[in-house]
Structure formats: structure tokens, C-alpha cells
Amino acid sequence: MKKFAEYTIWDSVTPQAVTSSTDATPIVVTKASHGYSTGDKVVINGHTTNIAANGIFKITVLTSSTFSLQDVNTGADVAGSGAGAGSSGVVALAPKVLLVEDFLNVVLQVDTTGSFNGTFKIAGSLGKKKSDATAISGDTPNFSATQTPSNPYSLVQIINLATAAAVDGATGVTSAGTDLHNLYEVNVNGLKYLSIIPTAWTAGAISVKAMCYSNE
User: Fold this and answer.
1) What pTM, to 2 d.p., does this model score?
2) Out of 31, 105, 155, 159, which residue is the most buried by the measure of CB atoms under 10 Å away?
3) Could you give all domains of the chain from N- to C-terminal order, each with its CATH number?
């Protein structure tokens, strides 16, 4: 019997370049005219020096140009890495993390607008070890945070269904000023979690719909 499930991972989301962050508790991120609201979940990737700012977080808006980071599960303030103020990277509203353990494949429908210029990558995980899981967060990894044995995930290869070309996980999907309207297939047989990480962005908004299916 076939199983299907549909999810919207991103709905017309525009990633933005991060200006800076404070190496403090909580971390305060600066991005002029960010447009976020208190309680939003965001993903930050590629932030340098203060790498504790990378990951998925809840935020508290302080001004139109600043917000602080809280743990997405506990709400606790996130501490800086201790290496100094951070810079660069990409911030966006956090994508959904899909539970895919009941499915063999996922097809991603990707549509962009605004002369898309950027890169995103697909990440998968089997989940955390039992010793690292908590009652609050379960075993879901924090995609985009530092990869460690206690936060295990990897980048995943996908297939462009228009060309049958493989897109390596470390390369990701990239476009320079051209909008995408593509379908990609992900073999999730054996994976438990799947999500998307924005790794570079200068223009455009992106929408991603996922169809999960199994022929069993």
C-alpha cells in the first residue's frame, strides 16, 4: 500500500546576509531591517568566529535591526562561543525538519522568484544517540549548527529529475541570477530526518514543497 505525505518546507522565504553577532549571553545578531517577530524560528549558517550563532533558534526581537537567540526547545538564552564577535553568514526563517523514517523517497519541488542568486543544501540524519537525546528535543539534530557526535547530520546527494544529474550534498543547488522551477528526488531510505540549509544568498525568495512516498 502506498504512503504519501505532503509538506511545505519553505513558503516564499527570503534569506538575508548577517551583519554581526555579539559573543555574549544571549547572542545578539545584527541585520538591518530583518523583518522578524519575537517567537519566530530562524536558521543561521556560515557565521564565522562566533560559531555558536549557527543553527536553528527561536528569537526575541530587540530592534528593527537586532534580535537575540534562544534555544529552540528550552527557550534558554544561547551563549556565544567565546571566540569573539561574529560576522557574515546567512539567516532565514527556519525550514521544517521532516520526519521521513516511514518513507523511501522524497521529491522536492523548488520554485524561486526575484532572480534567485544563492545556494541551498539538503541535510539528513538518523537522529541523536540515546545518551544525547532529551525529553524536550528528542533525538532531532540542530541542522546548521556544528556537526558533532552529539549533533549528527550530513549533507545528502539529490537527483535533478529534469536532467537525471546527481547534485552532491556538499555542492548543493546553486543559481546565479536565474530563477529555478525544478524537481529533485532524495533517497531517504534509512534516514529519519531531512531538512534544507541555506548556505549563500544575495537575491531572491524560495518556496520548497516536499512529497514523501513509499510503495510498500
Assistant:
1) 0.94
2) 31
3) 3-13+94-214 (2.60.120), 19-88 (2.40.30.180)
Partners of 28 in the β-ladder: 68
Cell of 70: 534562544
C-alpha span between 35 and 29 (Å, rounded) = 13
CA distance to 15, 156, 159, 183, per residue, from 164 (Å): 28, 16, 6, 10
For cell 544568498, name the residue.
Answer: 201
pLDDT, tens digit, 9 for 90 and up, residues 32-62? 999 999 999 999 999 999 999 999 999 999 9
